[in-house]
Amino acid sequence: AARAFAADVDFDDPLVLRGGRQISLDYAGETEIDGKPVFKLLVTENFTVTFSLYMDRSTYFIIRRDMVKPGVNGPETVVTEYGDFSPVNGVMLPYRLVEKVGGAVRYETVMEHIEANPPLMPGLFSRPPAAAKP
Description:
Structural class: mainly beta
Shape: extended
Strand order of the largest sheet: 1-2-3-4-5-6-7
Number of strands: 7
Largest sheet: 7 strands, antiparallel
Strand content: over 45%
Distance between the termini: 37 Å
């Protein structure tokens, strides 16, 4: 469960390398999604998490991720679709995320606005003060 949680909260996709990540990318051929030609990549992170990424052949945007995760009734294939790409400070980001399990939509997230590096109030991520001891 901890590995699945860590994989879901990672902000950088596997094509962005940063310290400490051990990522293996393997070319798994070409296919089509919704009539669009795509590259398929097999991704292994930290020798434990494996999933498939599908990249649009003309834009190189990641448009889908397929991952097997633990479910209530055993392993389930979770498909995450990324769409409605728009630039945010020069970086193309998806404004629509759809997660499906067994073809049924589990959730859909649509961003109306994304702001890169917004100013934050000092102390926003500070620990709360320690409670007084009785």
